[in-house]
Design goal:
A: mainly alpha, two-stranded antiparallel ribbon, extended, B: 654 residues, Leucine-rich repeat, LRR (right-handed beta-alpha superhelix), 24 strands, zinc-finger (chain A), zf-C2H2_STOP1/2_C (chain A), Znf_C2H2_sf (chain A), metal-binding (chain A)
């Protein structure tokens, strides 16, 4: 039997014993320390974690959906870290502190999951709100664990990389197997909490070591959410038709909008972007912050009551998103406010490093652009680029005086190979017959170089051809410099001229 | 000096009177005579001359210096022009130029013809566009290298009204967009054969150049979308859609509702267009003047005919290749009374009765094309001649039943006739030509395959039709030297002559041909009697000769070709296939004829590979097109082939 299923079975057996967290702690501590189990964990459960990151970025699933799997990954990462630490120089005491902190957290989470499983059997007819609450709690916990874990791993970056790559190669062989197995165990764990687990099918995808080595998982997650919600904002605003007065209008101040953090710890003053992160942080300040009530998302507690829909106004006067505007269109979320304000009313400080022309005020926009930068080949004279020709033409139609730009690398060298040279050389030439001819010959000889016909050029410079062509008794047919017969084959011409002169007589 | 002594002398005329006289001279040759009279006359010529067509590029700097008031410059005959030449012309004009201002000649220039100037690239075009602030009309047709960069350069000529970009194969939507944005005053634009063009470009053009009156998108792969855009052009009068394979009746529905000023539409050879599409067009545009629907209708349907009743102003209709009934003619003649031209080439169902009904009311007909309407006879021709007294052009190729009776009627009534095509009309004989020669305005006469005519018939033409400038005697085996003598005595204006397979013609006949100083185009295939002497006479006499086809003239020896190489300086195209030319003569012909652009050189039995190679080397800087014997592909050095290719020369292997 697979280890994970065994673990799950054990967990289920243990559930009826009761929900005392201290008991569980001691029991499980022993289990973690079992060396064989850690090894198994490290090999088996690594891929789901990768999949988690990938699905998060690509599919923008709800975070909680995926994060529910994380407790199982933590063990693997920990073990990886332990392995890595054997190789590299590190501070063992600091690492130990971190790990024990993580361990504690994992156990707390386990307790919580047990609780959920236990409740599932008893309270079948309960409203979904409690489930949602619990789910959120688990989510918050997991987030904090990941952050902690990754920051711990950050100190061992290089060694982690090595071990990971070693681990992934071994994983490649049994990746599919692990992928098949995993969902069943996860399903059981989440049974009742989550109806489906979308991550399961993604498990067998090749792991991406970069995601893990990134030591700022928090920020990364934020981007994922921002990008996701960014699209939501655009989509939602089109269709929304709320009657004025049916919703509450909130207006944040400019400073609030531009502040890097919106949630601050009341004790130490540390700032966070997300409330969940703050709540995780708060638990370090004492046991009173560790209760499920304190960890639950505060806003949703009141969701049972009928709430007024909240919409946001932009603080910038005159803006269409400002509540004083005639055709006011409210913004849906705080994130929408932030992005809108930055995009519309702030300097575009992020410059694309590839093209050095496109500027953005929202970093996510820059990242989106960078994905496509360089692929736009349709360029307008104003500098705007388009990925499609019809878009460029639409733009040109719209703006007076704009024309499509022709990229300079498309310059085709004239087939003759002389035209450009001629333009350059000829510019300064006096229109004195002899001097022009020499310059023309220069041009010609330059073209001859390409052809490699040296003797022709020699004939060209010969005074004989010069005389016969231009002055030699052909007054009725003056041959001014433009005569193209004075080409590289003047020698032939001169002969034929001489000949025909004779025949003419 | 005489002018002071005798007040009756022509030189006593004042300058402005002389200018007026000069301006009345239409023909170029007359103007030439005028300026050769004396210095004063030449001065008038230089001051008054507005248009200049340059044949030899080497004279260009002198000519530009001489004629300071040029408005129109035609460089289509010197395709060697390139960026370097333009740069030179614009910096200093002529040796030791006195004019302190650079490129002075370009200031007043309004029209510029650069057709086939394949050497001209964007830098040269940009210089020209900047130097000519008044430029209104540019022709860059058949400049195969003309692409988007060139279009961008040209778009700096903001005053441009007319632009011909036929067969600019490199041009894409981007280039057209450049033109459309830069030259928004554009009124006339031709884009034939610009194969890269798509609906996007046309759409942008129609949005930016709203003043367009003339638009030709023939042969393009544009779809109905383009017609949708075009329909928004309020001033459009002429629309050319010839052979656009993707256009169909649905697109013409847009035209029905749009283009309120439309006068002329050409949908000939559009595979997708049927009579229902034409019904849309006709229904929407009652004031249509010209409808060209050749080879797109299988039948002139009654529904279309019904709509055509409303086209009271229609002047030109071409329905080549369609089936047409006698009653249709009745309807057309009853309603389209102002018809000037009707094209019924290869139409089925054209009968004497139909033609009679047509001309009974359409008495203003001037151009009538009845090519391959085999069933018409003298009766129809007589009816035409009797009714349409102002007939100018009649094409009755391969109408075998026409005899001298019909021609007699034409010669009696249609005295304005200028062009008649009697190719393959076996009924034409000497007597017929005698009647026809009464049409003294005749300028173009085609008698190919009329085997029943002889020297006698030709002599009538030579005596009476003095304005003739094109004569086709292809396979008129009855024609000999005497006929050519009569011709050369009378038809001094002859520019184009076809003597192919007139076996009787000998060196003496070519001697008479040599008297035709205006002759520029001579086709004399398979004249087995002629030798070098005859060719020499032609070369010496026909100074303007530009196109010579002497395939299968096997007896012509080197002396003739030497003469050709020496005298025929204006020769642009030559066909020497199956001729007995030697290596040396070939080298001289190819090397010495500095205007030569195209040569056909297959089956030269007396030439060696080295000779051909040397000849090609001698002309590689200027030759644009050459046809060679296929096995030579592997015998000629790769070097010369590369040079030719690099120079933009097209080689056809036969």
């Amino acid at each position: 039997m697979d280890l994970k299923e065994r673990v799950c079975d054990e967990l289920q057996k243990e559930v009826p014993k009761g929900a005392s967290s201290t008991n569980f702690n001691t029991q499980h501590q022993q289990k973690w320390e079992d060396p064989s189990s850690t090894l198994d964990y490290s090999t088996r459960i690594e891929p789901p974690f990768q999949a988690f990151n990938q699905t998060c970025q690509t599919q923008s699933l709800l975070l909680c959906n995926n994060q529910i799997k994380v407790p199982m990954q933590d063990g693997s990462i920990n073990d990886l870290l332990q392995q890595a630490s054997k190789i590299q120089d590190w501070d063992p005491s600091a690492m130990l502190n971190n790990l024990s902190f993580l361990e504690q957290k994992i156990h707390q989470l386990q307790d919580l999951v047990y609780l959920i499983i236990a409740q599932k059997g008893q309270v079948l007819g309960r409203p979904d709100e409690l489930l949602v609450q619990q789910q959120q709690l688990v989510t918050a916990d997991l987030t904090s664990i990941i952050i902690q874990l990754i920051s711990t791993a950050g100190s061992l970056l290089s060694s982690v990389k090595q071990t990971l790559s070693a681990a992934t190669t071994s994983l490649g062989q049994c990746g599919e197997f692990g992928g098949v197995v995993f969902p069943s165990s996860a399903q059981r764990l989440n049974d009742g909490v989550q109806p489906q687990n979308a991550g399961g099918s993604k498990v067998s995808e090749p792991p991406n070591s970069i995601d893990i080595t990134s030591n700022n998982g928090n920020e990364q997650n934020n981007h994922i959410v921002e990008e996701h919600e960014l699209k939501d904002e655009e989509d939602a605003e089109e269709g929304e038709n709320l009657l004025p007065g049916t919703y509450e209008i909130l207006q944040l101040e400019k400073e609030e909008i531009l502040a890097p953090h919106t949630h601050f710890c009341t004790i130490c003053g540390k700032g966070f972007k997300r409330d969940a992160n703050l709540r995780m942080h708060m638990r370090g300040h004492g046991d009173e912050y560790k209760t499920p009530g304190a960890l639950a998302k505060p806003t949703k507690e009141s969701s049972s009551e009928p709430t007024i829909i909240k919409r946001y106004s932009c603080p910038y006067a005159g803006c269409k998103r400002n509540k004083d505007h005639k055709k006011f269109q409210p913004l849906k979320t705080i994130l929408c406010v932030k992005n809108h304000y930055k995009r519309t009313h702030c300097d575009k400080s992020y410059i694309c490093s590839r093209c050095n022309t496109k500027k953005f005020s929202v970093i996510a926009d820059l990242k989106t652009h960078e994905k496509h930068c360089g692929k736009d080949k349709w360029l307008c004279s104003c500098g705007t680029t388009f990925s499609r020709k019809d878009k460029l033409f639409g733009h040109i139609t719209l703006f007076q005086g704009h024309t499509p730009a022709i990229p300079s690398d498309e310059i085709k060298v004239a087939p003759a190979g002389t035209s450009d040279g001629a333009t350059n050389k000829v510019g300064s030439v006096n229109f004195n017959l002899s001097s022009y001819v020499s310059s023309e010959s220069e041009v010609q000889s330059s073209s001859m170089d390409i052809k490699g016909g040296i003797d022709d050029a020699v004939g060209y410079f010969s005074p004989l051809s010069f005389d016969t062509c231009n002055f030699g008794g052909f007054h009725e047919f003056p041959r001014p410099p433009f005569d193209d017969s004075e080409s590289s084959f003047a020698f032939l011409l001169s002969r034929s001229c001489n000949y025909s002169q004779k025949s003419g007589e | 000096m005489l002018s002071f002594q005798s007040s009756k002398n022509v030189l006593s005329l004042t300058e402005d009177l002389l200018v007026r006289i000069y301006e009345l001279l239409a023909a170029e040759s007359d103007r030439k005579s005028f300026r050769l009279v004396c210095r004063e006359f030449r001065r008038i010529d230089t001051l008054t001359r507005r248009h200049l067509r340059v044949i030899r590029i080497e004279f260009l700097p002198i000519l530009l210096r001489k004629y300071p008031r040029l408005q129109s410059l035609d460089l289509s005959a010197c395709p060697h022009i390139d960026d370097g030449v333009v740069s030179l012309l614009l910096t200093r004009v002529g040796p030791g130029s006195n004019s302190p201002i650079l490129g002075h000649w370009a200031w007043g220039l309004k029209s510029l013809v650069l057709s086939r100037a394949t050497g001209l690239r964007f830098s040269g075009l940009e210089m020209l566009a900047r130097a000519c602030p008044c430029l209104e009309s540019v022709d860059v047709s058949y400049c195969c290298g003309f692409g988007d960069r060139e279009a961008a350069a040209l778009s700096s000529a903001v005053g441009l009204r007319e632009l011909n970009m036929d067969k600019c194969l490199q041009l894409t939507d981007v280039g057209l967009a450049k033109i459309a944005v830069g030259c928004s005053k554009l009124e006339k634009l031709s884009l034939k054969w610009c194969m890269e063009m798509t609906d996007l470009g046309i759409d942008l053009l129609c949005k930016k150049c709203v003043d367009l009156k003339y638009l030709d998108v023939s042969y393009l792969k544009v779809t109905n979308e383009s017609l949708h855009s075009i329909a928004s052009l309020l001033k459009l009068e002429v629309l050319g859609l010839m052979a656009c394979p993707l256009i169909d009746d649905v697109g013409l529905q847009f035209i029905e509702r749009g283009c309120p000023s439309l006068k002329v539409i050409d949908v000939s050879r559009c595979e997708g267009v049927s009579s229902s599409g034409l019904i849309f067009v006709v229904r929407g545009h009652r004031n249509l003047l010209e409808l060209n629907a050749g080879y797109c209708l299988s039948e002139l349907s009654t529904a279309l005919l019904h709509q055509m009743k409303n086209l009271n102003h229609l002047e030109v209709i071409r329905i080549d290749g369609a089936r047409i009934s006698e009653t249709s003619f009745q309807v057309i003649s009853a309603n389209c009374k102002s018809l000037v031209e009707i094209g019924l080439s290869k139409c089925l169902g054209v009968t004497n009765m139909g033609i009679m009904r047509l001309v009974s009311a359409c008495i203003n007909l001037r151009v009538l094309n009845l090519t391959c309407c085999h069933s018409i006879t003298d009766a129809a021709i007589s009816a035409i001649a009797y009714s349409c007294r102002s007939l100018v052009c009649l094409k009755v190729e391969s109408c075998n039943m026409i005899t001298e009776k019909g021609l007699c009627q034409l010669g009696s009534f249609c005295l304005l006739l200028e062009e008649i095509d009697l190719t393959d009309c076996c009924g034409v004989n000497d007597k017929g030509l005698e009647y026809l020669s009464r049409c003294s305005e005749l300028s173009c006469l085609k008698l190919g395959l009329c085997t029943n005519i002889s020297n006698k018939g030709l002599s009538y033409i030579g005596f009476n039709c003095l304005k003739i400038h094109e004569l086709d005697l292809y396979r008129c085996t009855g024609i000999g030297d005497d006929g050519l003598e009569a011709l050369s005595n009378g038809c001094k204006k002859l520019r184009k002559l076809n003597l192919s397979y007139c076996n009787e013609v000998s060196d003496r006949g070519l001697g008479y041909i040599g008297r035709l100083e205006e002759l520029s185009d001579l086709e004399m295939r398979a004249l087995h009697k002629i030798t070098g002497v005859g060719l020499e006479a032609v070369a010496v006499g026909c100074k303007r000769l530009a196109d010579l086809d002497m395939k299968h003239c096997e007896k012509v020896g080197d002396s003739g070709f030497w003469a050709l190489a020496y005298y025929s300086k204006n020769l642009r195209q030559i066909n020497l296939s199956y001729c007995g030319i030697s290596d040396m003569a070939l080298c001289m012909v190819m090397g010495n004829l500095s205007r030569l652009q195209e040569a056909k050189l297959v089956h030269l039995s007396n030439c060696t590979v080295e000779g051909v190679e040397l000849a090609l080397r001698a002309c590689c800087v200027r030759i644009k097109k050459v046809k060679l014997f296929a096995p030579l592909r592997f015998m000629l050095s790769s070097e010369i082939l590369e040079i030719l290719h690099a120079r933009g020369c097209i080689i056809r292997w036969d």
